[in-house]
Amino acid sequence: MTSLRLVVVDDHPVVRDGLRGMLGTQPDLEVVGEAASGTEALTVVAAARPDVVLTDLRLPDPSGGALIRSLLERVPTTRVLVLTTHDTDSDVLPAVEAGAIGYLLKDAPREELFRAVRAAARGETVLAPSVAALLLARVRPRRPLSEARLSAREREVLALVAEGRTNREAAARLYISEATVKTHLLHIYAKLEVTDRASAVAAAYRRGLLDG
């Protein structure tokens, strides 16, 4: 089995050591480099050409969106997955605009991190729920309910939720990551103007979006 090649970027040695040890428990994930600053990250990534760069945002220069943009300019084939403690507008928006494919918080469970790395390598967007909600609030104009439309995949996710499936079960049925299911659910909540699974199912039935 071919391993996914990763570079870890964080200015705290303990964090880098912890991530290297944790990621190293997975047979399909291999940490091929690490960096403590933006400048070092550019050098390491250019040499290692990893599949995924797992990076904090607030680093010695360059950092944030500027670092992500520079990484992708040097190695366009790599995917940049942010792993940080910060989820404010001033952190999230520049990172996403610069090309980060995912944005996780450091309190994410290890299994979620593993799934996110694999999903990022496949080119799938992975967002922490709080980050997804922030982006939806900022970039999606508020539309009347009559104009909201669920995508085919969102309907599939919602149908499985209506059957009582968990996020993990829905992910397995649709061959996508659990994090992607969570993101679809956030999109559904925003479109139906609800805040939870039960309300989403009820609203979908009322509007004829689900059979039954």
Automatic annotation (TrEMBL):
Signal peptide: none
Domain Response regulatory stretches: 5-121
Modified residues (4-aspartylphosphate): D56
Keywords for this protein: DNA-binding, Phosphoprotein, Transcription, Transcription regulation
InterPro entries per the UniProt record, alphabetical: CheY-like_superfamily, NreC/VraR/RcsB-like_REC, Sig_transdc_resp-reg_C-effctor, Sig_transdc_resp-reg_receiver, Tscrpt_reg_LuxR_C, WalR-like
GO terms (BP aspect): phosphorelay signal transduction system; regulation of DNA-templated transcription
Domain HTH luxR-type, chain residue ranges per copy: 143-208
Superkingdom of source: Bacteria
Family annotation (PROSITE patterns): HTH_LUXR_2 (PS50043), RESPONSE_REGULATORY (PS50110)
GO terms of molecular function: DNA binding
Descriptive protein name: LuxR family two component transcriptional regulator
Higher taxonomy: Bacteria, Bacillati, Actinomycetota, Actinomycetes, Pseudonocardiales
